[in-house]
Amino acid sequence: MKTLSRIMTATALVSVVGCGKLPGASLGGTFLVEPFLGASIPTEGLNFPAQTYSAALAREYQSLARTAATEDVNWIDASAYMQKGYAALRGEQIQPWAPSVLGLSGEAESVYKRVVNTINTHAGRNPVACARALALYDNYVEELSEGAHSCTDPAVIRAELEKQLKACSFAAAPKYTAPVQLPPPPPAAPVVYAPPQVVVAPPPPVVVAPPPPVVVAPPPPVVVAPPAPVVPFNACSAVSVPENCTCSGETGNAVLTCERVVTREVVKEVVRTVEVPGPERIVQAPAPAPVPAPVPAPLPASEPVYTAPAPVPAPPPAPPPVTAPQNYTIYFGYDRYDLTAEARQVIDEAVAAFRAYAAPFMDIVGHTDTRGSKSYNTRLAQRRADAVAGAVSSRGVDRSALRVSASSELDPAVTTGDGVREALNRRVTITIAQ
After folding, report:
1. Which of 147, 234, 316, 364 has the fewest CB atoms within 10 Å around its CB?
2. Is 407 helix (H, G, I), strand (E, B) or coil?
3. Which of 113, 117, 99, 114 lies closest to 154 in space, CA to CA?
């Protein structure tokens, strides 16, 4: 159903005067526009000016394709900008559209020549500004060729184009000046060499003075104070010694030696004489009394008592994942969408907070102040949101978890009238939620 709707929209646009005549535009190319709008084009990590220029040019054409497809509902013109964006990513040399291709002449020809000369001269010095100037020129001649059907006033685009051409060509290199040719110096007079007269005088006599006598002073006596007497620690002074024990504490530990006292009953042996008739006398002694078993002495009071170890407490449970939404705001300069050092620090904090959620998503919305037209502010707000989304993706966040949109000047932080510059409204808001 979505494909059928796009074919019907593209067919209707072909019948409109001025629509669908951009070089490279095609009905089949409209099916590739949507993947191009969702592509992540890097903004950081580019090592050479040529890479920076190509990436910046691809982002500019991506923004123009998004405006043509979503605001102007002109998917065929969006396919033409898509073709230029993909060519820039491949590193090809992108040329602006000649006015004659779009049926233009006169002043458009002079603007075309200025754009070509400025970009060819200064693209390596100011790649971002030059890339934006080239994309603005293509948008200018597109709107100029559509006449009464144009969606944006060409004069507004022309004013912005002049600013970017000036930024593209600033700090131009000085012109080369040939060095002044000086006349050759006159030939020098011939030098006649005369050998010098060398007079060798006898050397003066060398008088060697005797060395001074060496006086060796005896070293001062070293007085060493006798060490203080060491009093050994007697560990027996810290324990209580029972009466039947002795203590030895020379080793640093109290060692108790106790005597075991065994008390037993002394039975007196009684010998009884029994007269037995006959020649012999038998003396019988009584059996000895049984001796009670020895009773062990009680242990001394200083004997250690075993104590069971205390139970180890269980570790506290892990904290629950963060679920409350968090908001961050990144501010931009007037008519700018590049990221400052403070902006990158806020992005680092937002990415760290994003990773604390279980299954989060990040809502990135671009805003502008009320200076400029609504269509231009929409493109500028989208560029700001895309710059922040690209920085978040380069820090490892999956692009599928991001929702990137542009609110233009419709949701200001500070309410102002139309055409007012307000720094607090030039921003991108980041909302992280579960």
Report:
1. 316
2. strand
3. 99
Q: Which pLDDT score, from 0 to 100, does residue 304 have?
A: 54
Report the C-alpha gap between 361 and 389 in whole angstroms: 12
Query: For residue range 174-220, what is the model confidence (pLDDT) as tens digits?
Result: 444 444 344 555 554 553 434 445 444 555 665 556 666 655 555 56
**DSSP helix/strand/coil, 218:** coil
* C-alpha span between 292 and 256 (Å, rounded): 28
E strands present in 285-353 = 326-331
Rounded-to-integer distance, Cα 62 and Cα 170, Å: 26
Cβ-contact 429, 367 below 8 angstroms: yes
Identify whether the C-beta of residue 267 lies closer than 8 Å to the C-beta of residue 289: yes
Q: Are 336 and 368 in contact (CB under 8 A)?
A: no
Handedness of CA 45, 50, 53, 57 (dihedral sign): negative
DSSP 234-254: -GGGGSPPPTTEEEE-TTSS-
User: Distance between CA 242 and CA 257 in Å, rounded?
Assistant: 10
Q: With contact defined as beta carbons under 8 Å apart, do 340 and 360 qualify?
A: no
Kindly calculate the radius of gyration of the chain based on its CA atoms and give it in whole angstroms: 51
In angstroms, the CA 82 to CA 78 distance is 6
What span, in angstroms and rounded, lies between the C-alpha atoms of 59 and 43?
9
Residue 365 carries which side chain, given as an amino acid letter? V
Q: What is the mean pLDDT of the chain?
A: 76
Residue-range domains of the chain with CATH: 2-168 (no CATH), 326-433 (3.30.1330.60)
Q: Which tokens sit at 148?
A: 């009464």
Q: Are 107 and 114 in contact (CB under 8 A)?
A: no
**Per-residue pLDDT tens over the stretch 73-104:** 889 999 999 999 999 989 899 999 999 998 88
pLDDT value of residue 296: 57
CA distances from 111 to 56, 93, 161, 163, 355 (A): 22, 19, 10, 13, 50
Distance CA 362, CA 273 (A): 120
> Considering only CA atoms, which of 85, 115, 164, 172 is closest in space to residue 336?
164
Looking at this protein, which amino acid is placed at residue 297? A
Identify the three-state secondary structure at position 428.
Answer: strand
Beta pairing partners, 331: 427
pLDDT at position 204 is 63
For residue 430, what is the enclosing H or E element? Answer: strand 427-433
Specify whether the CB–CB gap between 126 and 170 falls below 8 A.
yes
| Nearest to 53, CA basis, from 95, 96, 88, 90 | 88
In the chain, the N- to C-terminal Cα span, in Å, equals: 32
